[in-house]
Write a structure and sequence with these properties.
The chain has helices at about 65-70, 80-85, 120-135, 215-225, 255-265, 270-280; strands at about 5, 15, 20-30, 55, 60, 85-90, 100-105, 105-110, 145, 170-175, 180-190, 240, 290. With about 290 residues, the chain is α/β, with parallel strands linked by helices. One of its GO terms (molecular function) is protein O-acetylglucosaminyltransferase activity.
Amino acid sequence: MRFVAQTMKTRRNFCARTTSLIVSERIFSLTFPILNIKSSKRYRQDVIVKRGQVGGKCAKFDRAILENNSKIKGYLMSWADELQHFESNSNFQMNENHCEIIFEKPTIVMKLDAAINLYHHFCDFINLYASLHINQTFNQDVDIIWWDTHPGGFVDNLYGVTWKAFSKHQPYELKDLDQKRVCFKNLMLPLLARQREGLFYNSPLVQGCSGTTLFKSFSQFILHRLGIKPPKAELEKVRIVILSRSTAYRRMTNVKEIFFFIADEKSRPEKESGALYERSSRCDETGDLKLNEL
């Protein structure tokens, strides 16, 4: 972590390399320009376009560090596009004279991946979960702002219940803050869904790195926060779930062979077909069989 800005008092303000994660206390304000939301598009990188539209009051502000950390840009790769115009203002105060809206609670601003796709949307959630660990905060009494510039807002009908694992409040929409001067007493800009060498998406293969419990603890965290109790496995049955894609680079080339293999095993005598269950007996708690165990 690098300290880009420091407040007058000792507080927690830091920015990760490549501006992939930012935490700020009592120094952050945003002036949203005219978004032209009716004709706007999703994944815009030009919401903050002028010096001073984002800023705060800092005892020390190092622009050189900010610029050096803002070289990697991309809507879901970093916060560089939004922070490159940050300026420190010695006259800034967290009050109604400088702010039209003040978020009193700790606030998380999220730039979002596709909500209609389970894989891509959970890139959002697992990176938010990792950000909570980095920031060492798991309080659910927080506000969340969906940073989405689509005219229809961010529609999350399929997986929207997952937000309840992170906050007990309904998230705010970016379009509701259009042309407002918004201030935050405690703000986190979390890790994003498609960072370079990030988590879940673009994850590199690191030699010697194995057996991490991050994904298991994320799964347990979601189930616990949502009050979901996994069903007990029916030991007499094995359920096989196969997700097959038709795209050129995500297609399973041997999916037909898998189906024929399973169908053939079912038609064999019980003694002979037992080999399938021996090879596939390592199931998870719900009785699901992972493909790499076939």
